[in-house]
Design goal:
The protein starts with 17 loop residues before the first strand and ends in an 8-residue tail after the last strand. The chain folds into 3 domains: about 110 residues, Pseudouridine synthase (2-Layer Sandwich); about 130 residues, Pseudouridine synthase, CATH 3.30.2350; about 55 residues, Archaeosine Trna-guanine Transglycosylase, Chain: A, domain 4, CATH 2.30.130. The chain is an alpha+beta fold. Helix 1 packs parallel to helix 6. The protein is about 20% helix and about 35% strand. The model has no long low-confidence stretch (mean pLDDT about 90).
């Protein structure tokens, strides 16, 4: 149909809604991965949550269309990583892409000793962000300053380590799994663990296994996405998850048709759920309407409204 084509005869981007859990490959930025999948889906609007370094691999939730409205909530999600570190060498970037700036002997510790050292980081602590990070100082990214050889003072930030388990300790190789809060810099954690052992280290491999309640088995790698998309964008769209699966475990409220219309129109409506905080809101037939906030007076007020759009074919 002519209306679906641009002036060059190409198919116009469509209103595609949903989430795709990409197993991001190494050597690609998070945005490059997003743009590639966006093209495969021929989607109009897209965003990602929780950037991974180019060298890192693993779960990168990609949001399309209306699902981009939950990006901010996914940024708050806890994460799990499998980490491989090289002991005895520190780099300027904290990972294998940097230059070695310091070497130190590696202590001969057993598994139980390494586990004890790592377990000391459990709980809520403070962490100083690395210079090679996207945080800003006086309007400039820290990594931009670092590339110029500048080192500036960084304020410690609270982080939380929920679980940390040693998987391998052999010579200069250390492998562990860590579950942590948002904002945790794994490169810095590796350096701090090494420091507690009296040596130095850098991260050689970082693989993100989970984000929030998403399951690793629901991920699709880039080659898999390309293979599915060979059948056309519609085939890949069939692999998208609905936006509300990102909010698993949230309390929820189902509204009548009339209350749902008022809610989607920006009005607070009566709510039988006691308490406070955010909740998923559904209309009849479990149609996801958006995210509401429980307010005083037994009402729920709209915070994010999800518009119903016809599914792209």
């Amino acid at each position: 149909m002519a209306g679906n084509r641009d002036n060059r005869g190409r198919q116009k981007p469509a209103a595609v809604n949903g989430l795709l859990l990409l197993d991001k490959p190494a050597g690609m930025t998070s945005n490059q991965a997003l743009q590639k999948v966006k093209r495969l889906l021929n989607a109009r609007k897209a965003g990602h949550t929780g950037s991974l370094d180019p060298a890192a691999t693993g779960m990168l939730p990609l949001c399309f269309g209306e699902a981009t409205k939950i990006c901010a909530f996914l940024l708050e999600a806890d994460k799990t990583y499998r980490v491989t570190a090289r002991l005895g060498e520190a780099t300027d970037t904290g990972d294998a892409d940097g230059q070695v700036v310091e070497s130190a002997p590696v202590p001969n510790l057993g598994r139980d000793e390494w586990q004890a050292l790592m377990s000391a980081f459990l709980g809520t602590t403070e962490q100083i962000p690395p210079m090679y990070s996207a945080l800003k100082k006086d309007g400039k990214r820290l990594y931009e300053l670092a590339r110029k050889g500048e080192v500036v003072e960084r304020e410690p930030r609270p982080i939380r380590i929920d679980d940390i388990s040693l998987l391998e300790a052999s010579g200069t190789r250390l492998v562990f799994r860590v579950s942590c809060s948002k904002g945790t810099y794994i490169r810095t954690l590796v350096e701090d663990i090494a420091k507690s052992a009296g040596t130095v280290a850098h991260t050689t491999r970082l693989h993100r296994e989970t984000v929030g309640s998403f399951r690793a088995e629901d991920m699709l790698d880039m080659s898999g996405a390309e293979e599915v998309a060979e059948e056309g964008p519609a085939a890949l769209r069939e692999r998208l998850l609905p936006a509300d699966v990102a909010l698993s475990g949230w309390q929820e409220r189902e509204l009548s048709e009339s209350d749902g219309q008022r809610f989607c129109g920006g009005q607070a409506v009566a709510c039988s759920i006691a308490g406070e905080g955010l909740a998923k809101v559904y209309g009849p037939a479990r149609r996801f309407l958006g995210i509401g906030e429980l307010v005083t007076g037994g009402q729920i007020a709209p915070r994010r409204i999800f518009l119903s759009e016809p599914a792209a074919k």
